[in-house]
Amino acid sequence: MISMLRCTKELLGGKSSLLIPQMLLSVIDSLLNASMFGMMILTLMDLAEDSFTMEKLKTYLMALAGLFVIRCLVLAGAGILSQCRGADISRELRLRLGNHIRCLNLGFFNKNSIGRLNSTLMTDIGDFETVLTHSICDFIKIIVFTLVALGVALVIDLKYALVIVLLVGIALPLLTLSGEVSAKNSAALSRAMQMAVSRIVEYISGIKTFRLYNLTGEKFERLDESLKNLKKEATHSELSVLPYTISFSTITSCIIPLALIMGTYFLTRQTINTISFLAIIMLAISISSMMTGLSALYPQMKFLTRASGNILDILNEKPFPYEYDRAELKGYDLKFEDVYFRYTYNLDVLKNISFTAPAGTTTALIGPSGSGKTTIISLISRFWDVNEGRITIGDEDIRTFAPDSLTEQMTVVFQEVYLFNDTVFNNIKIGKPQATKEEVITAAQAANCHEFILKMEHGYDTMIGEGGSTLSGGEKQRISIARAFLKDAPIVLLDESTSSLDADNEQEIQLALDRLMKGKTVLVIAHRLNTIIKADKILVLSQGEILESGNHTQLLLEKGWYARMYTEQEKARGWQVTA
Question: Which of 503, 473, 521, 485 is nearest to 364 (CA)?
Answer without folding.
Answer: 521
